[in-house]
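Inverse folding, one chain.
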């Protein structure tokens, strides 16, 4: 079975390649903009291209049985149409919670007529790097809505689920909501990072407008959208769901385990 991984050098896509190889896949094709810089493992068939440039995709799609679709909304419909024309048998897409910004990915996949599996993670644990500069500079993190709570997920777990779903039959037509194993407030997340670093960190809650300004330098126009999301999760915390452990047969990575593994991001 030939598996095409698009976005194969992205934060999740590269992990998907490694997970597939670890699970014994022997016909993996990785799509990347710059094969020379990608340094993908030996045995991987490296194809030059980008889902954002559909004209580059037909050679990469040739002979593909299953495709992992990295999320790129502007060209999702064209990419999926090309996959259908190439005879791809199933698309496993990375999107997000139903009805949010990433719904367009699922709509494009379903419109293609190709059998699908939707992966719907919430916030990535890696998003904590928005606090990294503050943590490097001191022991306070200034941000909004300290009690905003969700069940953030490690990208390692997303990749592991993707690899299993790509390799197995029986997932056609399914949508998998993916979360970490526990719902934590933003204050609790900062405290977990502090424990991973071996020093106490304190969360300083900012008023709504100040929180937007705090994030604007890093997030630009998305700062207001992000803080609005914090407010919603303060009123309606996201619960954890057991999908990752059910699919993988092991617990999902906790926030503190992730913080210890990636402590260098904050030092």
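Residues assigned per position:
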């Amino acid at each position: 079975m030939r598996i095409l991984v698009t976005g194969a050098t992205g934060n999740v896509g590269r992990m998907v390649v490694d997970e597939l190889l670890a699970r014994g896949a022997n016909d993996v094709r990785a799509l990347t903009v710059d094969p020379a810089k990608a340094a993908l493992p030996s045995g991987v068939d490296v194809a030059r291209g980008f889902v954002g440039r559909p004209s580059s995709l037909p050679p990469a799609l040739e002979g593909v049985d299953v495709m992992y679709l990295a999320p790129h909304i502007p060209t999702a419909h064209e990419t999926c149409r090309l996959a259908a024309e190439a005879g791809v048998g199933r698309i496993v897409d990375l999107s997000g919670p139903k009805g949010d910004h990433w719904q367009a990915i699922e709509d494009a996949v379903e419109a293609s007529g190709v059998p699908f599996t939707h992966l719907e993670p919430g916030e990535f644990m890696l998003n904590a790097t928005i606090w990294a500069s503050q943590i490097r500079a001191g022991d306070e993190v200034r941000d909004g809505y300290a009690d905003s709570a969700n069940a953030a997920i490690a990208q390692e777990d997303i990749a592991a689920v993707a690899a299993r779903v790509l390799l197995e039959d029986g997932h056609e037509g399914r949508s998998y909501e993916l979360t970490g194993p526990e719902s934590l407030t933003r204050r609790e997340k900062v405290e977990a990072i502090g424990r991973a670093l071996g020093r106490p960190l304190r969360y300083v809650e900012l008023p709504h407008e100040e929180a937007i300004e705090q994030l604007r330098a890093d997030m630009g126009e998305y700062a207001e959208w992000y803080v609005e999301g914090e407010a919603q999760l303060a009123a309606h915390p996201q619960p954890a769901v057991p999908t990752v452990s059910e699919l993988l047969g092991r617990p999902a990575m906790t926030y503190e385990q992730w913080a210890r593994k990636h402590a260098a991001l904050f030092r």
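The chain has a mean pLDDT of 96. Residues 113 and 219 are 35 Å apart (CA to CA).
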